[in-house]
Amino acid sequence: MDAKMLAGADRARALEVFAAVAAAGSFSAAGRSLDLTPSAVSRTIDRIEARLGVRLLLRTTRTLTLTAEGQSYLGAARRILADLDDAEQAISDQGAPRGRLRVSASLSHGRLCVVPLLGEFVRCHPHILVDINLTDAVVDIAAGQADVGVRFGPLVDSPLTARKIGVTRRVIVAAPEYLARHGTPQVPEDLHEHNCLNFNFRRAEPIWPFRTDGRDYALSVKGSIEANNGETLGQLAEAGVGVTRVGAFSVVDAIAQGRLVPLLEAFNPGDVETIHAVFVGGANTPARVRAFVDFLAERLA
After folding, report:
1. Greater confidence, 175 or 98?
2. Considering only CA atoms, which of 172, 149, 168, 171 is closest in space to residue 160?
3. Angle, nearest 10°, between helix axes 68-92 and 38-52?
4. CA 189 → CA 94, 178, 211, distances in Å?
5. Burial 125-161 (b: 16+ CB within 10 A, else e)
6. 17 vs 28: CA distance, rounded Å
7. Per residue in 35-80, pLDDT tens?
8. Residues 9-13: contacts with CB within 8 Å, 24+ apart?
9. Distance of CA 108 to CAs 113, 200, 229, Å?
10. How buried is residue 214: exposed, middle or buried, by Cβ count under 10 Å (0-12/13-18/19+)?
11. Residues 173, 262 contacting (CB under 8 angstroms)
């Protein structure tokens, strides 16, 4: 092994030692996990700090605390070690996707459409650990908060790769009980007399699109409740609180069973939202990410 390869191996080992110290909270515990003496661990940390010219750990007789630089270095160390592990395991397994896959999806669509597919996915890819987070907050994929995000509607410009995995139709609904009390709107303008339940996202303005006599327009509506997901709005509509406009996937069962009634369908302008999977693309995209995006595109299309 030449000097450069040896230096690379030493730095990889140093990253492993540093990550073990941060996880264990002491030199002795880290040494036991790596079969090293505490003094060998300490010397390794000293060499890293000397090379970088910064303090990574604050040491007392009882505790070790990461500095701000130490926190940054730990994040980089974990990413590098994970990449090395993925590369070695992929080669040893002849390219089988593996490792932790962090997925971010919205509450309603995630629960109703993505989560039911996960069992099949992990049966097809037993070496992948799926770590799913359901939230309607926008997770920063580029900053490493997740590997794949499932996003609705228009996408903002970003360096991320986006792949269309489906579309969802939007539908206006209300409960029969609500309509019996307040009447059924016959034209879009009748909604001014109704309690229209909306999303509370900043990007979701309280306007609903319609088409009358071939002309598309947006109608401003008002209501007493806003929510951050379509499932909640559908539940409120079922309870007779008001009228709402949500993705059809979240209310398809309620419509089929008569608990909700579609409204103003003759005025629907083809109201749909595109669904994308977004991820960090490029030649170095992990195989597990590509496998999951391909799977979603096939199952949700």
Report:
1. 175
2. 149
3. 110
4. 62, 18, 12
5. beebebeeebebeebebeeeebbbbbbbeeeeeeebb
6. 11
7. 999 999 999 999 999 999 999 999 887 788 999 999 999 988 888 8
8. 12/80, 12/81, 12/84, 13/44
9. 8, 15, 6
10. exposed
11. yes
DSSP string, the chain: --HHHHHHHHHHHHHHHHHHHHHHSSHHHHHHHHT--HHHHHHHHHHHHHHHTS--EEE-SS-EEE-HHHHHHHHHHHHHHHHHHHHHHHHHTTT---EEEEEEE-HHHIIIIIHHHHHHHHHH-TTEEEEEEE-SS---TTTTS-SEEEEESPPPP-SSEEEEEEEEEEEEEE-HHHHHHH---SSGGGGGGS-EEEE--TT--SEEEEEETTEEEEEE---S-EESSHHHHHHHHHTTS-EEEEEGGGTHHHHHTTSSEEE-GGG----EEEEEEEE--STT--HHHHHHHHHHHHHH-
**Residue 224 dihedral angles phi and psi, to the nearest 5°:** -95, -10
Backbone angles phi, psi at 266, to 5 degrees: -65, -15
Task: Determine the Cα–Cα distance for residues 106 and 276; give it in Å rounded to an integer.
Answer: 12
What are the residues facing 59 on neighbouring strands?
A: 64
Q: What is the pLDDT of residues 181-235, one digit of tens each?
A: 999 999 999 999 999 999 987 555 578 999 999 999 999 999 999 998 889 999 9
Cβ-contact 295, 168 below 8 angstroms? no
